[in-house]
Specification:
- The chain is mostly helical.
- It is built from 16 helices and two strands.
- It has a two-stranded antiparallel ribbon with strand order 1-2.
- Strand 1 and strand 2 form a beta hairpin.
- Helix 3 crosses helix 6 and helix 4 packs antiparallel against helix 6.
- The C terminus is likely disordered.
Length: 338
């Protein structure tokens, strides 16, 4: 009886918003490992991103068309949002992240990208000239200290600083991604935003590659995933289906169920999943100092999120309308990911 109840509880958790959010983080975390297995056989980062976006766009195009039935005017009203989302939040973010992965371990590259919330704090501080609250400031300082440890400047294994710059560029794109997706817009369904961004990103990547501005190198050599040597299409399929289609769709489901702030908070587990997948599939594991730095970065981001949630609750107590807005702040917002 207890075993049956345990199984039922497990199924209920997986079907809940929190369970779906964790599944989303888990599959998002596979992207670096699948991509690196391809890069090591001769794929260029541009080619890997173009194939990833194209495959996912084709798969999501049909359900997006169904959602848009009799509502095609939504594309006309939101074309700029979709264009920026695809160009920066999808193509730019993934290309820079894959370039970082080509030079750094998957875990270090993703930790650099997840400095985005700290960058948002700094940007809002500069633009508004309003000093952040104490908890937010502490979180930002903690994450910056973690960054120093992740770089491990005095360690025996030197970090590729070109890779670090790519990782920081990915973080900047993720900042813009957050700003775009955080804008409340009841006329743009999440599935349409996701599929439209993938289409735009794919078109941009192929155009840039066609004019020679971005190397496009493909390979049909076998890839190595854990102890197995697999055909190239296994890594491509994993990158497209698991790390993109399933990740985006489950992320949207989780965001609608939990709300944007809780869902994005849970998405921090992607860093841990990425390190785990890189260890299992690539045999990569950051050094102990880098792992400590990663914990500091995640801890700092958690402090920033907690302070944000506390601020929202205070605002809701002052303005009841704000509470209703916060309850539905996520209706059009997918969970972020590389």
């Amino acid at each position: 009886m207890s075993a049956t109840r345990t199984m039922a509880d497990a199924k209920g958790f997986l079907a809940s918003g929190l369970g779906i959010a964790i599944i989303s983080s888990a599959v998002f975390g596979t992207s670096g490992s699948f991509a690196k297995s391809m890069l090591e056989t001769g794929w260029s980062p541009g080619a890997a991103v173009a194939v990833r976006l194209s495959g996912a766009a084709l798969i999501l195009l049909i359900p997006a068309v169904v959602v848009l039935r009799d509502r095609w005017h939504q594309l006309k009203h939101n074309w700029l949002t979709i264009l920026l989302f695809g160009l920066i939040g999808v193509a730019g973010c993934q290309l820079f992240y894959f370039n970082a992965v080509a030079r750094l371990s998957v875990g270090v590259a993703l930790l650099l990208e997840y400095l985005a919330p700290v960058m948002i704090v700094l940007w809002l501080w500069i633009s508004s000239r309003r000093r952040p609250r104490a908890l937010t400031s502490a979180g930002a300082l903690l994450s910056l200290a973690g960054l120093v440890l992740v770089l491990d400047l005095t360690g025996s294994v030197k970090v590729d600083f070109i890779g670090v710059l790519w990782g920081m560029a990915a973080a900047v794109c993720l900042v813009i991604y957050f700003f775009i997706t955080a804008k409340e817009n009841d006329t743009l369904p999440p599935l349409v935003l996701a599929s439209g961004g993938l289409v735009v990103g794919a078109v941009v990547m192929w155009l840039v590659g066609a004019v020679g501005l971005l190397p496009m190198t493909f390979s049909t050599a076998n890839t190595s995933l854990g102890p197995w040597e697999t055909p190239w299409w296994v890594s491509v399929g994993g990158l497209v289906i698991l790390a993109t289609v399933l990740a985006y769709v489950s992320g949207i489901m989780a965001a609608r169920s939990l709300g944007s702030k809780v869902a994005s908070f849970v998405s921090l587990t992607e860093v841990l999943f990425a390190v785990l997948w890189a260890w299992l599939l690539l045999g990569e594991l950051p050094g102990s100092i880098q792992l400590l730095g990663g914990l500091l970065i995640v801890g700092g981001v958690v402090l920033v999120r907690v302070d944000e949630l506390r601020g929202d609750k205070r605002a809701a107590r002052v303005d009841p309308v704000a509470e209703r807005v916060l309850d539905h702040a996520n209706d059009v917002e997918p969970v972020p990911g590389p």
